[in-house]
Write a structure and sequence with these properties.
Blueprint (H helix, E strand, L loop, with lengths): L4 E6 L4 H13 L3 E7 L6 H9 L4 E5 L5 H14 L4 E6 L18 H17 L3 E10 L6 H6 L11 H5 L3 H6 L2 H22 L7 E6 L2 E2 L10 H10 L4 H7 L4 E2 L1 H13 L7 E6 L2 E2 L4 H4 L1 H15 L2 H9 L3
Parallel strand pairs: 1-2, 1-4, 2-3, 4-5, 5-6, 6-9, 7-8
Antiparallel strand pairs: 9-10
Helix pairs in contact: 1-2, 1-11, 3-4, 4-8, 4-13, 8-13
Length: 322
């Protein structure tokens, strides 16, 4: 079958990304849905194709812990897929509760994978984006200290500067843990989405939004947590979502629901042309004060370009967002 466009979802092999890919494949059978993750142990693409009796989902390996791997992926993707890129869903993410760890490029791993690698991927694929393409960045309510407190305050962002998020010093490491560093990276996701929107030309037809999928139970996202938390998250808490919404927070969802909400951002006419908005479920919501700060946006934008570009020619090309 010949397809009219491509939709790329990073981390689309499980959890939120899988259910987004499933919903998009169902809704857009004329689009090639590419799910890109380090591995695909459950054969997600085959599972979706079999369930829908279609063949429009394809898995391609992508290791976001290495900027060289991101560059290699982009080069292969552009060579193999000539279709316009209708949507880029920057979904993949990690949450590591243990001691600090770093990517192969020496960047704190949450910040490196959740933000830096995704920003590089966007810039490498930017020229293939359709004129009305949609770029979805996955953030979290935890990016906002005010919002984080409504979840009990056990996970808090500590975002100050991108340099310190990428290379935390001894003081930063002492005051935060792995889940805090995850929240810090989600702050960067929200800031960068707004920064990208501000760099689009005024007459651009592209859509750039950030998405908070909410707290989800029943995914593999807590695979690095201890046994008790893994057991609860997999077998007990998914059955308690309605109660948790009443007692804890309204934005606690099954991954099927959040995946459908993220797919809606790709397809809905209500979202078309939005630039810099932040969504919770299917409604706009004000992002944190840091995410709305133009100073923070410009700082992260410049630091990111300095970090991911190779030479002045590429720097100039990445700066010219169209």
């Amino acid at each position: 079958m010949s397809y009219t466009s491509t939709i790329l979802i990073t981390g689309g092999t499980q959890g939120l990304g899988f259910h987004c890919a499933l919903a998009l494949a169902r809704h857009k059978p004329d689009s090639l849905i590419v799910i890109a993750s380090r591995t695909d142990p459950a054969n997600a693409a085959l599972t979706i194709n079999t369930q829908l009796k279609q063949q429009n989902v394809r898995f391609v390996p992508l290791d976001l812990s290495s900027l060289a791997s991101v560059r290699s992926f982009a080069q292969t993707f552009l060579a193999d897929t000539q279709l316009p890129l209708a949507a880029l869903v920057l979904n993949a993410g990690i949450q590591l509760p243990g001691p600090v760890s770093y990517t192969t490029d020496g960047i704190e791993k949450h910040f490196g994978i959740n933000h830096v690698a995704h920003a590089l991927l966007f810039h490498l694929l930017a020229l293939r984006l359709a004129p009305d393409a949609r770029i979805i960045t996955v953030s979290s309510g935890l990016h906002d200290p005010v919002e984080a407190k409504t979840f009990g305050g056990s996970i808090m962002p500590h975002y100050t500067t991108p340099a310190l998020a990428a290379h935390p010093d001894a003081a930063a490491l002492k005051e935060s843990n792995g889940r805090d560093r995850y929240a810090t990276s989600k702050t960067a996701n929200a800031i960068w989405s707004a920064a990208l929107a501000s760099h689009l030309p005024p007459d651009s037809s592209k859509t750039v939004v950030a998405f908070d999928p909410g707290l989800m139970f029943g995914t593999n996202f807590t695979r690095d947590a201890n046994f008790v938390l893994r057991f609860l998250g997999r077998w007990i808490l998914p059955h308690l979502v309605p109660l948790a919404r009443l007692l804890v927070h309204s934005n606690i969802n099954p991954p099927e629901e959040s995946g459908g909400n993220m797919a809606w951002l790709v397809t809905s006419g209500e979202v078309k042309g939005k630039k810099g908005e932040y969504y919770e479920k299917r409604r706009e919501k004000e992002a944190s004060a840091q995410a709305r700060s133009r100073e923070k946006q410009d700082e992260l934008w410049e630091w990111t370009l300095e970090t991911v570009t190779c030479g002045e020619e590429e720097r100039g090309r990445f700066e010219r967002v169209e």
